Fold this protein.
Amino acid sequence: MKVERWNIQRDGPLTEEALHRKLEQMGYSVGRYVYPSGTYFGPHTHAVDKIDAVLAGQFRIVMEGQSVVLRPGDAVHVPKGVEHSAQVLGDEPVVSLDAMKLVSGRPSAVCNQRRRWPLVMANPGKSRRDRDRTWLKARSACS
C-alpha cells in the first residue's frame, strides 16, 4: 500500500481547498467527513476506486495485510473490491476527504445501491435517525 504525501514544493501549502481541487483534477468526486475519536470502520469493500486523504488527525488504514497511519497531507488509494478497515487514532478527530472515482462524470453505480455504509455503523452512539441522515449525506454525492 503506497501512501502519497503532500509535497509543499509541488502542491503548495496544504489546505482543504487545494487537496479537494487536486483530487477532483484526478477524476474523483470528493466529500468531506469528520470522524470522532474512537471511530472504527470494520473490514469492508467498495464497488468503486477510492482515495482516503487526511487533513487533520491520525487515521490507521489496514489493507491486504499492511497497516499505515495517515497524517495531515497523506492519502492512500483503495482499489474497488479490496477489503480494508480504518480507525481514528488518538483523541483528535480525523478530518478526511473521501474521494470516489467518477465514471462518465458521475460517481460509480454504487450510488444506486442502498447499503449501510461502514461510516454509518461505525458510530454506535448515533441514533438511527442520525445514521440515516449520514446515509443520505453520503448518497447525496450521487445525485
Summary: The first helix runs from residue 8 to 11.
